[in-house]
Design goal:
alpha+beta; UDP-n-acetylglucosamine1-carboxyvinyl-transferase, Chain; binds ligand EPZ
Amino acid sequence: MDCFIVEGGARLSGTIHVNGSKNAALPILATALMTDEPCHYHGLPVIRDLQTQVKILNTLGVETRWEGRTLATRVVDTYNSTAPYELVKTMRAGVCVLGPLLGRRGEATVSLPGGCVIGERPIDLHLKGLAALGAEISFDQGNVRARVPRGGLRGTTIYLGGKFGSSVLATDNVMCAAVFARGTTVIECAACEPEVVDLANCLNAMGAEIEGAGSPRITVHGVRRLKGVEWTVIPDRIEAATFLIAGAITRSSITIGGARPDHLIAVLDTLRQMGVEIQQRGQRLTVVPPARPRAAEIATMPYPAFPTDVQAPIMSLMAIADGTSLVTERIFPDRFMAAAELKRLGARITVNNGQAVVQGVERLQGAPVMASDLRCGAALVLAALAAEGETRISRIYHIERGYERFEERLRRLGARIRRAPESASGGEA
Ligand code: EPZ
């Protein structure tokens, strides 16, 4: 396994281009299951989670071919409709094949995702929605099996809100299954994330009839079949936010190209509250950093509020801010693994009951730290860029799940970061 070795303090400069969205691509690739025609998905990031999703599609009878950042797909057989545990356990989002399989083939078996470091990952809302459409749900040895009764799925009105509000992938799964249901389905308390909108737009390009995506009420008029599609996924707003924070935390005026500022409203607002100005020219965002950011208060909630996936990265910036910040995590209350590692770098963070109090310090000090999940890993890299001295970040395979060539792209901006075998001794970055 590899680690990153970062020598902090370098100023960054130049432009970095945002890749396609991981969280749009994962459910959109599952639409390949919903048609017998060839599909081409463009602008995909080359990351581990997409490779896992492709393996899941292959086990489900989808032939795939990479052509640079394009994935060409075609269903060649439909005999297996079970997404295997050994793949879904490495990527919870594998559950997003459930709705497409059920809608198109009338049955689907997916291993229950289980938990991960950011918290339990239940799928009760997914199953509630599919059952409301008429699916018969059963459980068997850690798998959930959904089957369509004779007569097919029937459109209905479904309230899909949970105790943490809307659910992104539950909305995706129910929307996909409803595409082939007889009649009209209304999803109330639907997730409004841009990635849900991208999925709905892709399905409509395939011949679906979906209205209201991006609002809490999505209406799906059932159709009989879908065509193939050529689709380019939206830019990754979480990656864009990560790079904006990289500029702010190193006091560097870098430019992020190919972003969608309209997908980043809450993040841009928080950065501005912290004294970080962002100049917008179309899809180019240029960071104008203060000498030292101000503290802020945020609460993560479903879109368009502050995204939980940017909670750890913004906490790294808060760690060196002037004043005391407050982070309330309302989506995954246990998602504070980054705090313990940031404290190893000298951050002063107290976590209690889904809240983190961050007392800003002047400087962080490099130290060996460990990534526990994708966004925690990114947060540790950001903190290391600003820390004095050397930081070694282990278990970077978490980062590689969702950030393509992370260290290479940061190095191109002037960051002193390199990859080394995990057992590597220290030495120059
Ligand atoms: C998506 O996960 C994202 N993943 C996550 O990004 C993101 O953190 C999350 O949405 C929240 O924005 C993908 O899109 C592939 P949820 P998802 O269902 O859909 C609870 C990353 O780092 N819930 O919106 O699985 C759940 O426990 C990843 O890129 C239920 O209670 O999240 C959570 O508290 C991490 N029952 C809340 O809802 C359910 O059936 C929101 O989760 C489903 C969810």
